[in-house]
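For practice. Any example?
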Amino acid sequence: MRRLRMGMIGGGPGAFIGPVHRIAAEMDGEIELVAGVFSSNPGRSRQAGEVYRIDPERAYPDLGTMVAAEKARADGIDFVSIVSPNHHHLPAARVALGAGLPVISDKPATATLAEARELAGHVATSGLSYALTHTYSGYPLVREARARVLAGDLGAIRKVVVEYPQGWLAGAAEGKQAEWRVDPARSGPGGCIGDIGTHAFQLAEFVSDLEVTEVLADLGIVVPGRLLDDDCSVLLRFSNGARGVLLASQIEVGEMNGLRIRLYGEKGGLLWRQEQPNTLTIHTLDGRTEIVHAGGSQLGPDAAARTRTPTGHPEGYLEAFANIYRDFAAVLRGESAPLLPGIETALRGMTFIDTAVRASRENAGWVRLAV
């Protein structure tokens, strides 16, 4: 089968996430980047096209031009990848879906909950595939953790603790590719809660296979002059009665990308850490501890299928990102990928952001999370 052809929105000169998407999409030979609108500045879009080594004629000045030109080609793009700031997500997805092109998008799905609901309507009307790049659910040992929970190894889940500490925004945001992240006009109403809190939220629901039903949110602005939250504490209640804690912060000096999750059940507990992603720790009620290694023989079928190297050969962020693209490619080819985050995950994530922001601002206490 031929490789699927991808058109990218965003990811221009100096961007971090554009090259990551390109590497991840192409890692397994299923997809190739062939076109894009890499910047709202046509010159910078052409410059990015040169860096990505695509045909100069396919580095377009705007999305409408790209869609029209690519639809006219016999070798036109098969789908669109949206890697631009949040306020671009809905307009780009609207155009792509309207032109008959499936969409895979960076998270959060949109800038606001109202936009996410509109997006869900466009996805439903088009009948096309839509996916969200919640990268951390692509790690093999995150998949293994979920499988262990579903197998009942921990018993009924009682407690979920998910933390995402960073320190890179403890000072000024300027010069760090972060200006748009602290700008409500481009990011939406959530700062840290939308940027990394939504990752923590999705991971908690994904691994536990439970839904959050209520939140008690305390979102703070720590750096003087900042307009959006940069430090978040959220208590959670889950659909089975379990309690949880979500901590997300971008002002914790010394922290890098310390996403970690702990689950505790009737019979055991588990721990996974993003900065040490190749081990999963499982504790049992009788005092035993099992260390599960990426690539090891004890992995279940889903985790094993998404591991590319033998045990002891580290796999990380790019490989996890590639697993999301691999699942998306499978869906586009008519195959099944039930763990791929889709429009339902997008709606839940945006509902979480909106609810947490409003609840914290209004000092509302416990608030229902109603999608």
